[in-house]
Amino acid sequence: MVSVIIPTYGGAAGIKKVIESILVQTYKNIEIIVVDDNGKGTDNQRKTIKRLKKYIDEKSIIYIIHEKNLGGSSARNTGAKVSKGDYLMFLDDDDTVSNDKIENQVKALQDVGCKYGIAYCSTRVFYDNKLSNIIKVKKNGDILYDYLLGKVYMGTGTALMVRDAWESLGGYNESFVRHQDWEFFARVLDKYDAIAVDNVYFNRYITNRNLPQNIDLTEKYADHYIEFLKRYPFHIPNRQIRKVINMNNSRIALCCIREKQYKRFFKVMSKYDNIVQAYSSFVRFMLLVCFQKLIGRKS
């Protein structure tokens, strides 16, 4: 069985779309678990249950309500803990997937050895419902370093994982408000190999609802992720982790420039080991961003 876990918060308008994309899967041994993280009795919770009434009445989904908003990581863990599947797939409430995604990812994992804990697929990215990019994937095996550097794209909904992988890692880190998937997949890929299924099975929709609302929050969430990178005992060399940390500092620095916060930019640059490394790393990151915009990301 495959358990599909969908946390929802303020996403009542689009949630039927993601559920319908699961109900038409060619792989039929599926359970769908919706975890409502709006908070019991809130306007958004009432809107959500109204939208889901048909599926609840037909027992097409398992519907769980959090008493209060606990965050995406907690909602995913809640769903996983009650699930029964041998495989887990996590989707956001505004994602959709192709009807043969699960069948082909299950087959891919069954065809490889037990070292492989996760399968991931190519992605269509939409900004405000307009196709912006197609991200193709092809790298297999130990892809941790490439993933941390952003050379491999593995969004939440691209992946299907073996249940043992989730359980062995203790699920999502509930201290993460943002970048939950970055942190979780980093730990998964540190322990397990990944298999790429290069077909475009996943559709990611990005709107203002998905993004931090100001540079303060952007830096706060990024710093929390960087602290995780510094502490976690990855199997790759420390020099590679330092390079990953520098890249993430460059990401914050770029946000500062976009927001015209130049004093803050120089403060971020001071976090590097030395000034030459800081600016060379930032220039490389800028070139990578420009390159990705020109040709689309491929991994």
Automatic annotation (TrEMBL):
Keyword Transferase found: yes
GO molecular function, one term: hexosyltransferase activity
Alphabetical UniProt keywords: Transferase
One Pfam entry name: Glycos_transf_2
UniProt feature coiled coil, ranges: none
Keyword Zinc (UniProt): no
Domain Glycosyltransferase 2-like per the UniProt entry, residue ranges: 3-164
InterPro entries referenced in this protein's UniProt entry, alphabetically: Glyco_trans_2-like, Nucleotide-diphossugar_trans
Signal peptide: none
Protein name: Glycosyl transferase family 2
Organism of origin: Lactonifactor longoviformis DSM 17459
